[in-house]
Automatic annotation (TrEMBL):
GO terms for molecular function: methyltransferase activity. InterPro entries: Methyltransf_25, SAM-dependent_MTases_sf. Keywords: Methyltransferase, Transferase. Residues 41-136 form the Methyltransferase domain. SUPFAM superfamilies: S-adenosyl-L-methionine-dependent methyltransferases. It comes from the Bacteria. GO terms for biological process: methylation. This is Class I SAM-dependent methyltransferase. Pfam families: Methyltransf_25 (PF13649).
Length: 257
């Protein structure tokens, strides 16, 4: 199964991107959501709660879902450790369902690029639109194209609290310039005292978007007032060497809910 955050993948993610670690996005989302007073906030693909938990702790009325039980487990654990009551469910981009609508939907850290089929991506954007209140906002972060076509074959490692070693070997096996996708084999390994305890292989597929292409996709889904920002500087157009591109768009008033 592609893009499945299993036990080792989730463990490595939590070691590499612990709760509260910021790449500039923590501050950006707090600022952009500061005056979001018209209803709850939704974070699809909430992961281990790196963004979700600090926002919840700061008093934002945020809910979340993820497709990975393992990732949700980390998020639940951190909420319990901080005595936070969290609304978290196991759902997917394509089929999530609520009996309410949201004042904002946020998709940080390029998670939307896990949706690699262009028709499915358009349907997910329309689903986001349908679950927003009038004037509700969607904020999506995308990685630029350069991050997809750089060098492959990296090996990284982390030491867990108990001294065990976690390694990740990232090998890109396919780049489809027509479909705008990359496919990587991510091999996770868990080592203890020189012995391999467990290994896990993820077939990890992502899709890149052009800036204008994604803005047009938002408009096709019904959104208006699209603002594109580079490196978490709201309103500053993206530049060549930016590491992240953020899109903010609004569901117009006058559209039937």
């Amino acid at each position: 199964m592609q893009n499945r955050y299993g036990k080792l993948a989730s463990w490595v993610y939590n070691l590499d991107k612990p709760i509260g670690r910021s790449f500039g996005d923590q501050e950006y989302y707090r600022q952009r959501l500061e005056h979001c007073d018209d209803g709850p906030i939704l974070e699809p693909a909430v992961g281990n709660g790196r963004i979700f938990v600090p926002l919840l702790e700061a008093g934002f009325p945020i809910e979340g879902f993820d497709a990975s039980d393992e990732m949700l487990g980390y998020c639940h654990d951190e909420c319990r450790n901080r005595n936070l009551s969290a609304s978290l469910t196991r759902q997917t981009f394509e089929q999530f369902s609520y009996d309410k609508r949201f004042a904002a939907i946020i998709v940080p850290a390029g998670s939307f690029q896990l949706v690699t089929d262009i028709a499915s991506a358009g349907a997910v954007l329309k689903r986001f639109f349908d679950y927003l209140t009038p004037n509700g906002r969607l904020i999506v972060d995308l990685d630029p194209i350069g991050s997809f076509i750089g060098q492959s074959g990296s090996v990284r490692s982390w030491v867990a609290e108990d001294g065990d070693l976690l390694t990740l070997t990232d090998h890109r096996v396919d780049t489809d310039y027509i479909a705008q996708t990359t496919l990587s084999h991510l091999r996770y390994e868990h080592w203890r005292d020189g012995s391999l305890m467990a290994t896990e292989l993820d077939l990890f597929k992502l899709r890149w978007w052009g800036v204008e292409e994604f803005a047009l996709a938002l408009q096709a889904a019904g959104f208006s007032d699209v603002i594109v920002s580079g490196n978490y500087q709201h309103g500053r157009p993206p530049q060549k060497n930016d590491q992240i591109i953020s899109f903010e768009a609004r569901r117009p008033e006058g559209v039937a809910v």
